[in-house]
TrEMBL record:
TM stretches of this protein: 142-162
Sorted UniProt keywords: Membrane, Transmembrane, Transmembrane helix
UniProt protein name: Uncharacterized protein
Amino acid sequence: KDFAKDLKLPPEEAFGMPQQYLVVNPLEGIHEGHVELKMKGVIQGKDDKVHIIVTPFEQEAMNKLNDRLGVVVNLIEGIESSFDNLDSCAGQVKDQIRKKIALVVDSLKDKQEIAKSEAKKLESSKITTLKVQAKTLSDHQGAINTVEFFIVVIVVDFVLSYTTNFKKIKK
């Protein structure tokens, strides 16, 4: 009953008495996508074939099943084809990703070299600036030392003059 409902066939009472139809090797017929009918119940074929007597409604149900089988086979082939396409696309995507990663790595290496070069230029510039500042500091230190020397000479000269003048005044 459920089978008949599923295939949208009339209820069981509508099946009535079996007509004399013959399906010759139904498994082979389904596999090939068709069912072969012989009229008047005459059994034909070789002994290795399976013979079934069916009603017209059962035959219609088998035809619908055969149609469904064809649709399912097409769907399965489509799914298998999709898997093949997916595998193919996956390989292509992996290749593209590898190429992009290689480009990024090369770009990063180039940028690293540029950064190193600029760092060396900056280091050289700072070393030059520090040398100039050290020379300037040394020159200023020399000037300060010279001024200190003159101050010491002046102070010593003043102290000697003061001492000499003080002794003269004391005498």
